[in-house]
Amino acid sequence: MQRYLPFHCHNRKTLLTVRTIIPLPFILLILIASSIASCSKSKSDDLHTVCPVDEPYIYLWSGEDSLLTFDALNNITQVSSDNEEIVKVSLEGQKIRLKAGKVGYTNFWISYGDNKRIWKQARSAEPSFYWINLMNQVSFEIEAADPAFVGTLRAELEKQWNQELLFLFSNSTNRITIVKGNAALVEGNYNFNNLTLTVEIANDVTNVYTVIPNSSRQVLSFQQDLTKQYQDLYPDQQIQKVIVTFNMKYKSLPG
Fold it and tell me: Which ranges of 107-217 does DSSP label H, i.e. alpha helix?
């Protein structure tokens, strides 16, 4: 099954969790990107987006929740999905809520007016291709009993994260390679579900990331809870929280 980089016709409102991705022809990116520009965010309601009635595709990240309206569709009476495991659809007044589930695509139907009915295609996607970190766009939440230790740990983390980070997803094999600096930091199997990216590495080690969609569909925020790791590393420091959040941007294939 092909995977799509989800550019879409809506504003997202859900916090997500994640694990990792590979490529498609460049022409597909142009076609998908053109569908984004056709939808505009409603100024009166930050939680939904207005789409033209002829918009054929709606793109969502798996686990994402979206509220939208279609212009020129009046008196909507009923909505339904051909496959609710992929996308659930419900009617809220004259707005339509979509909730993306497992990766895939399905049609949903809108009944409106005098016994009129139209369909749209909704696609629930996972990250694909290459993603590279945006330097200096990383934040740390650290809580511990000793303020001096918090400062020391923050400096240590800033040093570790002040280098290039690359996520390479292979959707066909569900493998991910995470490269930090010039060396492969992690290689393993990944699963992306409900905005959570889980990377399974050798020796029963699992990295879990929460994914947060951005205003740009080419940027994702990844959040990793490192509390347990640093509690084990510094057992006498009474660490309550160590969370790292970093932004990554979609990067087209080299060549």
Answer: 147-161
The Cα–Cα gap between 12 and 15 comes to 9
Write the burial class of residue 6 (CB in 10 Å: 0-12 exposed, 13-18 middle, 19+ buried). buried
Distance between CA atoms of residues 198 and 12, nearest Å:
21
Cα–Cα distance for residue pair 138/248, rounded to 1 Å = 10
Do 163 and 186 form a contact (C-beta atoms < 8 A)? no
Asked whether the beta carbons of 208 and 19 are under 8 A apart, the reply is: yes
Distance CA 165, CA 182 (A): 9
Give the closest residue to 213 by CA, choosing from 41, 72, 89, 63.
Answer: 63
| 171-194 confidence digits (pLDDT tens) | 888 899 888 877 767 788 999 988
Instruction: Return phi, psi of residue 29, to 5°.
Output: -60, -40
How far out from the chain centre does Cα 175 lie?
17
C-alpha radius of gyration, the chain, whole number: 20
- What does the alpha-carbon distance between residue 99 and residue 88 come to, in Å, rounded to a whole number? 5
The span from the CA of 225 to the CA of 100, in Å, is 24
Task: Give me the residues paired with residue 35 across strands.
Answer: none
Distance CA 255, CA 253 (A): 6
- pLDDT tens for each residue of 26-66: 333 333 333 433 454 443 333 445 565 666 788 888 898 88
